[in-house]
Amino acid sequence: MIWNNSGAQQSGGETSETYTRQRTQMVKEQIIRRGISDPNVIRAMMTVPRHLFVDEEDRNEAYEDHPIGIGEGQTISQPYIVAFMTEVLKPDSTMRVLEIGTGSGYQAAILAELCDSVFTIEVFESLGEKAKRLFSSMEYHNIQVKVGDGYLGWAEKAPFDAIIVTCAPTHIPEPLKKELKEGARMIIPVGNFYNQELILLEKKEGKLIRQNVLPVRFVPMIDTKGNKY
Ligand code: SAH
């Protein structure tokens, strides 16, 4: 894929080589050293220019080991969490994936490197529209963005081979369970600000098998009026 790096070169005097060096170090220290081993996930983390998904003044921090603010009180997830959630979905080039919580668009871009198509829903119009523009400038033609409430799923595009939720409800949304194909997986943070777990669900013979995989802290899932789920 060919990137438009002009923005990167203007910001803080950093060159794209500097970002490539920082990205290589991120993948080595935060991703591989902590146990991510799927070579395709590692390659995607090495390929996607994470600095283009944060505001220009934050680009020098883009490859650091923490989340970063992206406006509207929302964040781009820590690189390791993105890689971890991607790996547990066992992505492959045939899969149609639904993401709830587009945010910066970074997680969707990682999935777009690995899967056939990505459908992503963002509740804030400003963030959804910004991500749309970024995807088109980066020529990610296999990502579709919808502005709306992801709790309700995306019926017209369902069913999906995998669902990834990057904001936390206090329970697993019923509509999302229904949009999983047989054999499909969903990774979702569930809980409140103080007590949250990533949960992996797998649909087997119509039933959902549930596994708690990692304690995390995501922003809450909200409806279009801003009320928490
Ligand atoms: N995947 C994102 C992480 C964004 S943080 C990234 O890679 O940058 C979580 C996002 O979920 C926020 O942008 C927030 O606005 C969004 N969100 C919260 N509730 C939502 C809902 N009901 N439907 C869709 N998006 C929601």
Please characterize this protein's 3D structure.
The chain is built from seven helices and nine strands; from the N terminus they run H-H-H-E-E-H-E-H-E-H-E-E-H-E-E-E. The model is unreliable at 5-11 (pLDDT under 50). Strands 5-4-3-6-7-8-9 form a seven-stranded mixed β-sheet. It has a two-stranded antiparallel sheet with strand order 1-2. The chain has 229 residues and is an alpha/beta fold. It has a domain at 65-216: 3-Layer(aba) Sandwich (Rossmann fold). Helices cover 30% and strands 26% of the residues. The structure holds S-adenosyl-L-homocysteine. S-adenosyl-L-homocysteine (SAH) binds next to strand 2, helix 5 and strand 4. S-adenosyl-L-homocysteine is lined by residues 74-77, 100-101, 103-104, 106-107, 121-124, 127, 149-151, 166-167, 219, 221-222.
Quick overview of this protein structure:
With 229 residues, the chain is an alpha/beta fold. The chain has helices at 6-10, 16-32, 39-47, 79-88, 106-114, 125-137, 174-178; strands spanning 68-71, 74-76, 96-100, 117-122, 143-147, 160-165, 180-191, 196-204, 207-215. Strand 8 (196-204) and strand 9 (207-215) form a beta hairpin.
- The percent range for helix content is 25-40%
First-last Cα distance:
38 Å
CATH architecture tag of the domain at 65-216 = 3-Layer(aba) Sandwich
Quaternary state, please? single chain
Overall geometry: globular
CATH class of the domain at 65-216: Alpha Beta
CATH fold topology of the domain at 65-216: Rossmann fold
Biggest beta-sheet profile: 7 strands, mixed
Spans of at least 5 consecutive residues whose pLDDT stays below 50 are: 5-11
* CA-atom Rg in angstroms: 17 Å
